[in-house]
Design goal:
With about 350 residues, the protein is of the alpha/beta class. Helices cover about 55% and strands about 10% of the residues. Strands 3-2-1-4-5-6-7 form a seven-stranded parallel β-sheet, with helices on both faces. Strand 6, helix 9 and strand 7 form a beta-alpha-beta unit. Helix 1 packs across helix 2. The protein is globular. Nicotinamide-adenine-dinucleotide binds next to helix 4.
């Protein structure tokens, strides 16, 4: 009896080994079939190139982790940079300018439509220059970025005075926060003009010198509304989706031209407590918190210094592209569950008019 059991055990262990070999062989055959189909659909060289790209994945993942945990290892020096920030008179723009003063940027230029706010911010930045013992020069320019002529003229004047811009932050933005049927066409056009068309004109003014010197950085302040549609924000979402597409096209255009020294960063934040989205809310603030302006500005400046191509915050917004893989009705229900449908219900924004109109609607 013992002899029989021993024989059975030996048989089973031999079977296990055979099973392991069989499954390895099976996996290799599967991979070969996939590669063969891919080579048939593209070309054998195409498959080799793709495998080469995939091999670089660990390096880039490591860079993301290092940039996140030890940003100072990757952060570039900005002390020779001329930084231009649109919409720099207040909110996020002014906070980012303050960070660049502390980093001793050579020159900061703020463009905004609001002259009073520009002058106040200039004073605060100059005080910070003295306090931090840096040598940053501050320049302010009042211009309406919703018009191509005024934007291009302002940009050319600035370049003639301070020389080439090396970091451009397209930050100026507006929101009306009205349902599509209530949105006046004039405001919808204005939203597109400020939130995206202005990017065309500022980038066109500074990019030739960046390409020539193979040096520079273009930053697009988009929004999580550039990754997802939101009721009550149709024109704003359209402008921010356009900004995301614009940034990606420029990034790939630089790659196409071989300008690896011209960097881009696209920023997609959820609501920031600057007042622009006053009244907008998150259903699950622990999962999807409204961002503190200081925190958002620090993260953006850090992303610029680390040449990070895309910055999405907070973490939960990263789920958007993943949830998009699901069937559309499920995607819509998840948006509903997240509270996306009601996020703008109590929106007031900056203006009193917005407030009154919103009350009338509800
Ligand atoms: N606050 C948020 O919740 C939030 C969320 C995601 C993205 N963003 C984006 O971040 C950027 C900055 O937002 P913020 O919260 O600091 O808003 P903000 O209102 O404080 O700043 C916007 C600035 O743009 C200027 N501006 C508006 N129209 C202009 C024009 N025609 N010409 C020149 N300047 C003009 C304003 O005067 C203002 O100083 C915007 O692009 C916004 O869309 C904001």
């Amino acid at each position: 009896m013992n002899e029989i059991l021993k024989n059975i055990n030996e048989c089973l262990s031999t079977d296990n080994n055979i099973c392991a070999y069989e499954s390895t062989a099976y996996n290799i055959i599967n991979i070969m079939v996939v590669l063969y189909i891919l080579a048939f659909l593209t070309s054998p060289l195409g498959v080799i190139q793709l495998l080469f790209i995939i091999c670089k994945l660990p390096y880039h993942l490591l860079k993301v982790v290092v940039g996140w945990m030890l940003p100072s290892l990757l952060a570039k020096d900005v002390s020779n940079d001329t930084v231009l920030i649109t919409g720099g008179a207040g909110g996020l723009g002014a906070l980012m300018a303050m960070k660049f003063v502390k980093l001793d940027a050579k020159q900061i230029v703020l463009i905004d439509i609001n002259l009073n706010a520009l002058q106040e911010t200039k004073q605060k930045l100059e005080d910070a220059v003295i306090e931090n013992n840096t040598r940053t020069n501050i320049m302010i320019v009042q211009a309406d970025l919703s018009k191509e002529e005024t934007t291009t003229k302002a940009m050319n004047d600035i370049i003639s005075k301070v020389g080439n811009i090396t970091i451009l932050i397209n930050n100026a933005g507006i929101v009306t926060g009205k349902k599509i049927v209530d949105s006046p066409p004039k405001l919808m056009k204005l939203t597109m003009a400020v939130n995206i068309e202005a990017h065309f004109w500022t980038v066109k003014a500074i990019l030739p010198s960046m390409i020539e010197n193979n040096h520079g950085h273009i930053v697009t302040i988009a929004s999580s509304a550039g990754l997802l549609g939101v009721p009550g924000l149709a024109d704003y979402c359209a402008s921010k989706h356009a900004a995301v597409g614009f940034d990606e096209s420029i990034r790939l255009e630089m790659r196409h031209l071989g300008c690896d020294g011209v960097k881009t960063t696209c920023v997609n934040p959820f609501f920031i407590k600057t007042g622009m989205f006053e009244g907008a809310a998150s259903r699950y603030p622990r999962l999807l918190p409204l961002l503190e302006p200081e925190y958002a500005a620090s993260k953006i400046v850090r992303a610029i210094r680390c040449n990070q191509e895309v910055l999405i915050m907070p973490l939960a917004v990263h789920l958007t592209p993943i949830v998009r893989l699901l069937p559309v009705p499920i995607f819509d229900q998840i948006c509903d569950w997240f509270g996306v449908l009601e996020t703008m219900n109590d929106f007031k924004g900056r203006s009193e008019n917005n407030n009154d109109n919103n009350k009338k609607k509800r």
